[in-house]
């Protein structure tokens, strides 16, 4: 595993969920098994959501049963690479929490009322209640809840948005003892300056909370956004190989995830990350090339 306090979260779930043709379950299994060998901190591998809403993720329970997580090394209490599953309501959280292999449940909490309705079929206030229920379940089942602030840098719907609105919701989440919060640039609208300002404020004002970024970007603006988050003191970064992905519920031209290969190169050049298995990474890229065509 890399020797660093920086966490790189690989998000094949985000890459796959909006893919138009169904990816065979065995291909998903092979891909995620290859990613498990690379040395990412966490893999956002699947979601327990309505198969009608996201048909691509209907086989998540089947996928997890076939992952090669390996036995724990002697004396180690945690596996090297951890698994994260996205849930949108209590039912999904209950389905996910029965799997010991899963460390993290992720919940998309939008500061845009329109997007929260589209994405989880609930209002922001209702979603806050769901977060509280899911957090209680996580405490009981030994999981950790990661809350993503969807549309965290603005939205395309004309819903009210300001940094203050984001910070108010984040403070309510922190009051529930949510330990990990990730700012999500769901439709790629963030500027580098905005990424820096918002991330720095949260990192500085919430020292007991792990603040991450889930940035979407184009090949032209990924580096300035990434550098801004690094300068702001962020230590948790989401990405996807080949920069595939985006939220299908946003219902627009998808802006891809931040490209993990580019992120890895940047982090290594700046001595922020080392020790990844490059042979495994090459194999993952090969499989990705077969899936995402």
Write the layout of secondary structure elements.
Layout: E1 7-10, H1 12-17, H2 25-36, E2 42-48, H3 60-64, E3 82-87, H4 90-97, E4 102-110, H5 113-120, H6 124-141, E5 144-150, H7 163-175, E6 180-184, H8 192-205, E7 210-214, H9 222-231, E8 236-239, H10 260-269, H11 278-291
Parallel strand pairs: 1-2, 1-8, 2-3, 3-4, 4-5, 5-6, 6-7, 7-8
Give a description of the structure.
- With 293 residues, the protein is an alpha/beta fold.
- The protein has a single domain, classed as TIM Barrel (Alpha-Beta Barrel).
- Helix content is 40%, strand content 16%.
- The protein has 11 helices and 8 strands.
- It has an 8-stranded parallel beta barrel, surrounded by 6 helices.
- α3 links the parallel β2 (42-48) and β3 (82-87).
- α2 (25-36) packs antiparallel against α11, α4 runs parallel beside α6 (124-141) and α8 (192-205) runs parallel beside α9.
- The chain starts with 6 loop residues before the first strand and ends with a helix.
């Amino acid at each position: 595993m890399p020797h660093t306090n920086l966490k790189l979260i690989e998000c094949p779930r985000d890459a796959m969920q909006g893919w138009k043709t169904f990816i065979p379950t065995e291909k998903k299994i092979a891909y995620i098994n290859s990613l498990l060998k690379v040395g990412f901190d966490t893999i956002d591998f699947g979601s327990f959501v309505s198969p009608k809403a996201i048909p691509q993720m209907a086989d998540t329970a089947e996928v997890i049963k076939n992952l090669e997580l390996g036995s724990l090394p002697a004396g180690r209490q945690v596996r090297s690479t951890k698994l994260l599953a996205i849930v949108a309501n209590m039912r999904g959280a209950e389905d996910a929490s029965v799997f010991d292999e899963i460390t993290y449940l992720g919940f998309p909490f939008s500061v845009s009322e329109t997007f929260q309705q589209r994405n989880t079929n609930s209002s922001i206030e209702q979603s806050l209640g769901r977060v509280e229920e899911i957090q209680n379940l996580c405490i009981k089942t030994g999981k950790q809840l990661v809350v993503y602030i969807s549309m965290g840098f603005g939205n395309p719907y004309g819903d009210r948005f300001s940094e203050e609105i984001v910070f108010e919701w984040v403070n309510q989440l922190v009051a529930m003892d949510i330990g990990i919060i990730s700012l999500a640039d769901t439709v790629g609208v963030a500027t580098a300056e905005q990424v820096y300002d918002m991330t720095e404020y949260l990192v500085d004002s919430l020292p007991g909370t792990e603040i991450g970024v889930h940035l979407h970007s184009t090949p032209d603006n990924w580096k300035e956004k990434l550098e801004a988050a690094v300068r702001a003191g962020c230590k948790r970064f989401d990405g996807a190989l080949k920069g595939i992905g985006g939220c299908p519920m946003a219902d627009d031209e998808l802006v891809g995830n931040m490209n993990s290969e580019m992120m890895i190169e940047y982090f290594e050049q700046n001595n922020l990350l080392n020790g990844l298995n490059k042979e495994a990474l090459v194999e993952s890229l090969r499989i990705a090339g077969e899936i995402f065509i």
